[in-house]
Each structure stands twice: as C-alpha cells, then as structure tokens.
Design goal:
CATH architecture of the largest domain: 3-Layer(aba) Sandwich
Number of strands: 11
Structural class: alpha/beta
Strand content: 15-25%
CATH class of the largest domain: Alpha Beta
Order of helices and strands: EHEHEHEHEHEHHEHEHHHHEEEHHHHHH
Shape: globular
Largest sheet: 7 strands, parallel
Strand order of the largest sheet: 4-3-2-1-5-6-7
Helix content: 40-55%
Number of domains: 2
Number of helices: 18
C-alpha cells in the first residue's frame, strides 16, 4: 500500500537519509511536500526525482530560483513562512519534522494539528516548547515518533511496556571529541577540532553540542517530555563506542538496550516502517570485531552542560527555551571565533540567571521568549 510523506527539511542530513530510504522502496511512497531553507537547485532536483506535489523554500527570496529550476515539472513551487506552514498542514500519512532551530516550531505544530504521524527530529519542538507541543499532540490525537537515535532507542525498548514498570532510562553519550581532554586543553579548543566527531557525521552546531555535552542535556529534556517517568529516573552515561543508543531498566531488574550502527538511517527506518520493520543498507553489527563496550559517568566539572539542562528541566516553564536560545547564540559565537569553548556553558548559565520570563502557554509565547533570550545572549557576548 502506498503511503504519503512530507519531509520538512529535505536537504538536511535527516532529510537526505530519509530520501535515501525512500529511494530503496520507491513504489511504497507518494511525496506530498518537500521543504528547504534556500537550497533551490537541490530542492528542485529532489522534487522532480520524487514527483513531489509541492516544493517550498522558507526564504521567499529564493522562490524565483526554485520556480526556474522546477520549470516544466509538475511540482508546485512556493516560498515563505505561510507556504511552509501550508505544506506542513497537508494530511500526509507521516511527516518528517527535521527543520533545524526555532524556524521549525510553527511548521511542526501545523503538522501536529493534522492528527497524523510525526517523525520528530526538531529538538526545539520539545526543548523550547515541550508543554505546548505535547498538549497539542494529545489534543489532536497525533502519533509522535522520535527520530533522534537515543529517543528512538528508548521508544523501541519501551514497546509493549508500562511506564509504571520503568525503574530508569539511560541515554548514552559518545562524549564527543574532547571526552579525554583536560580543562586546560578545553580552554584552547578550536572550532575545527570541535566539529570532528569521532562517531557521527553531523553538522557543525550539533557537533559542537556533542563536544560540550549540551546535545545530551537537550536530549534529556526531550526525553522528559516524550517518556513521562520523572526526571529522577532519567540518567546519562558516556559510552564512547556509540553502539548502545539507550537503555531502559525495569522494576524486575531487567535492562533492555537498543544496539545499532552510528547511522541515522536506522532510527529513521524505524519511524518510516512503524509499527513494522523495513530493510536498510546498514551493515550488521559485528560484536566480535568491536571487542568491547565501555561506559563511564559524565564529568560535570569539565562538561557542566548536562547539569544546566537538568536544572532547566526541573525549573520548567520558560527555562528550557532560554537555555536553548542561549546555547545557540554561544555556539555560533564559538564557531565564529568570538567565544572560547569553555565559555559556552558559562554564558548559558549567566543568561539563565538573568532572564526568567513567565511560562509560555502558546507557541507565540515560546517564539517571543526565544527571540528575547537571543537578544540578551548577544548582549552578554559584548561583555566577553
């Protein structure tokens, strides 16, 4: 049976991995909409290849180029925030929500309101707007499937079990490229070093988040909303091999772990085929070749990000949105050479101490808090 799909963020890494899987079972999918920020030529080629009904660039200034590249095709070209939300509102059987940053909040909400299935890869949806988004999921009867490898692993380990039976949930972290560095070395870390992740092929921002451990802290906040077992039952462990993606321990002492290669096509395939399974081109695990799997506790003296994220999750309300916005500004400053690596967490903590707005009750509140937090974070940068 043919299923319909919309990919929000089709030219990013998650979008590319999704399209790779679709190509392998082309007859099973009808593509409703593909979106990108401003990659007009690449988006047009994908839209023509997949016979997408509509292709949308979020940056409306790129629309003329998109129309030119789609000339002669059956795909409708559109641009701007309204067109992006309209594309997300199309009643696809499954929507891949993979737009990076708060730009993805409104389209993700528009997709949620259709009451279909959302494969969520946009961190901000649950970090910055967790209560707002989960309330909408409940209101519209939407099925929310997590794409992040850690949350997808937890989802798989929880299948058929009750939250009441869970003793703890453990998210694994590779520790990033600096896991064995001293504080002195971290103070001199460069952007080029930070983006060289030892296990995963990711963009610059998420690679820096892995290096600071903010990525894992943000995932803890996401897990808090996805799997309501209580913050006290959520744990983080450093697992350098990135083979075990997460674990769930049950009250009887049993622990279920999901293992797999460091390839995003595995969790994406889990979402695309859910509740069934599908083939992927990923090589099977060779445990004998791996030899050993190791674990260690996080070091929050060298990497305080996980502590800050847990504190923000405990505070709730607007705190996670403020934390996320501050981290994005700090990471951008680090990548531009304007902020030392070890000051990223310091700046985020300073922002949390200076800005504590009222809890958001709607998506517009979240967007306003995010904008204000970014402005205040930029002011803090001027003091560095």
């Amino acid at each position: 049976m043919t299923r319909t799909i919309t990919i929000l963020g089709a030219t990013g890494s998650v979008g590319a991995s999704t399209i790779d899987l679709i190509r392998r079972e082309r007859d099973k999918w009808r593509v409703m909409a593909l979106t990108a920020n401003c990659q007009a030529a690449e988006l047009a080629e994908l839209a023509k290849e997949l016979n997408a009904e509509v292709a949308v660039v979020a940056d409306e200034s790129c629309l003329p180029a998109l129309r030119s590249h789609l000339s002669g095709s059956q795909t409708l070209a559109a641009g701007g925030a309204g067109a992006l939300n309209e594309a997300a509102s199309r009643p696809a059987d499954i929507t891949i929500a993979a737009i990076v940053g708060c730009a993805g909040l409104a389209p993700t909400m528009a997709a949620i309101e259709q009451g279909k299935t959302i494969a969520l890869a946009n961190k901000e949806a649950l970090v910055s707007a967790g209560e707002v988004m989960t309330a909408a999921v409940s209101k519209y009867g939407t099925t929310l499937l997590p794409v992040d490898s850690e949350h997808n692993a937890i989802f798989q380990c929880l299948a058929g079990n009750s939250y009441d039976h869970v003793r703890s949930i453990t998210l694994t972290a590779s520790g990033g490229p600096f896991r064995d560095w001293t504080l002195e070395q971290l103070a001199a870390a460069t952007p080029a070093q930070a983006v060289k992740h030892p296990n995963w092929d990711m963009g610059a921002k998420i690679s820096v988040d892995s290096a600071t451990m903010f990525n894992k802290g943000l995932e803890l906040i996401e897990a808090h909303h996805l799997f309501p077992v209580g913050l006290d039952k959520l744990r983080i462990v450093v697992h350098p091999q990135s083979v075990i993606h997460s674990m769930v321990e049950y009250r009887d002492g049993s622990t279920l772990a999901q293992l797999g290669p460091s390839d995003m096509r595995v969790p994406i395939a889990s979402c695309l085929a859910w509740p069934s399974r599908m083939d992927t081109p990923c090589a099977p695990l060779d445990l004998a070749a791996l030899g050993e799997l190791t674990f260690r506790a996080p070091d929050e003296d060298r990497f305080p990000a996980t502590r800050l994220c847990r504190l923000a999750a405990e505070a709730g309300g607007a705190a996670p949105a403020v934390l996320n916005a501050g981290n994005e500004i700090a990471v951008a400053a680090f990548l531009a050479g304007h902020l030392p690596f070890t000051r990223i967490s310091v700046m985020v903590e300073e922002l949390l101490g200076r800005y504590a707005p009222a809890a958001p009750v709607a998506l517009d509140d979240v967007i306003a808090i995010d904008a204000e937090a970014r402005g205040r974070a930029r002011q803090l940068l001027e003091l560095v």
